[in-house]
Structures are given as C-alpha cells and as structure tokens.
Design goal:
The chain contains 13 helices and 2 strands. The protein is mainly alpha-helical and about 300 residues long. The protein has a single domain, classed as Rhopdopsin 7-helix transmembrane proteins (Up-down Bundle), CATH 1.20.1070.10. Helix 3 packs antiparallel against helix 12, helix 4 packs parallel to helix 9 and helix 4 packs antiparallel against helix 11. It is globular and about 60 Å long. The termini are far apart. The N terminus is likely disordered.
Amino acid sequence: MSAVNDTKFNSAVFLLTGIPGQEEVHFWISIPFCLMYAISIVGNSVILFVIKTDSKLHDPMYIFLSMLAIIDLGISISTMPTILGIYLFISREISFEACFAQLFFIHSLQLIESSMLLLMAFDRFVAICNPLRYSSILTLTRIANMGLVFVLRSLAVIFPLPFLLKRFQYCRVNVLSHSYCLHQEVMKMACSDITVNSIYGLIITLLTVGLDSLFIFLSYVMILKTVIASHAECLRALNTCVAHLCAVLLFYMPMIGLSVAHRFGEGSPPLLQILLGYIFLLVPPLMNPIVYSVKSKHLRARIIRMFVK
C-alpha cells in the first residue's frame, strides 16, 4: 500500500510516445515533421500577411480565412515543442501542469476552428442565397462579434478540463500514446473514477463540434436548394465552396476517427491511433493555406506577385 501511495505522490510527469518500435529512426522521422511545421507556419503567415496588406482582400470571406490561419498557427505552435522534442531526442517527459496547459490550448483551438468553419459556411450561405444583402449582413462589427462569441464559448467549455484532471491521483505508469496531451487519454491515466470527465467531454463534443457540423451540413443543403434550379449556377456556386468543403473534411474526418478510436477502439492497433492523431493535428494547418491559395484566384495571384517581386 505504501508503494502505491508513493507512486501517487512522486510521479509528477507524463511520458510522451513517438512511434513505438521506431525509436532508432526517430531522428529521420523528425525531418518530415520539421518540414510540415515549417510549411504550416510559413503558409499561414503568408496568408495573414497578404490579406492584411491587400485592401482588395478585406472581404468577409478573407477575414474568416485570416482567422482560420491564426487558429492553425496556434495549433502548430502548441504541439511543436513536444512532438519535435521526442523525435529530436530532447525529452519525452512533460509535467502535469504543462500537459494540462497543452491540452487546454489544443482542445480550445480545435473548438474555435470548428466554429470558424461554421462561420465560413454561413458566409458562403449568405453570399449564394442572399447576395444582395451580403455586405449589410456580414459587416465588420458583426463578424468581430460572432468571432468573439465563438472564442469565448470554446474557452468557457474547455476551461474546467485542467481542473477536473488536476483533482485526480495518477498511480499508473503515466505513458501516453501520443506526442502531446489530449483530455480523453490523460483522464485514462487516473486511478480515480473518471465518469464525470467522460460525460463532460462527450457533452462538450456534442454541443460544440456536433452542432457546428450539423449547421454546416444544413447550410450546404440550403445552398443546394437555392441553386439547384440552374445547373450552370449550381456548378459556379459549388466551385466557390470547394476550398471550404476540403477544410471541413480535413478537420472533421480525422477528429471523428480519433474520437471513435479513443472511446470505442480498445482493441484497435496503437499505430492507427497514433497516425490519426498526427493527421488530426498536423494536416489541417498544413493543407488549409495550400487549398485556399490554389482555389482562390485573387489570393493566389497576390501571393505569386509577392514572391515574384
């Protein structure tokens, strides 16, 4: 009994995990990770710079895109220290406080990104279904207020998580299966009853990401109903939504897969959860600036002009 008590109070760190069985080649694996982070940070920074400096890109669609770029930068910065720390053999230990802080930022930013994708869907809905009132509906003040409401919503619902985790005692081998901290995994390391955390996490997911994805789906149903009468108009309208649809799929598909794997995939291969985790956090910040740069003619032309000069 004393040994268990000692473990409870003396273990003050979690151990992060890279790719099991591949420790000898972690340095080489770090190279694609470094490239992904570099592309994510440079790509999103370029998007922000171009939108800020070009007054022609100060439309609501590009303002929402700049907000998405800020969120993606935050996600990349919040995960980079621990992921590269493991693959560059710096450290695989993370203190409880640092772990709780990291999961707070990761989950908060993920919820904010979900909300931002909803606002971008609303932007496309207004532009296609009510174009004459587009500028009067999506004013700068209204955009700022909507963004602030969703940011505060995300921070408010995630804020209790570190405190709910801090009240636990951790008496097991605190080895996490990812290179970063997630609430659904950290709570499983506790030797206490985690029912409250599990239910609260499920409620958060349903009331935020669940509702956001539902409203995004409904917005596209309304868009299709509006433009279905004209085949040419339908294709033209859907073409303006391709980039947003790609961003939605890149965000929600890995998130759903990872959630299912953590909650119901006890017998699933560990490598599957690890790969889903990396896709979930690293691919959207990497691909969003690329997709939007390719699909947005004005943005692409401005970026090319900036580098050609």
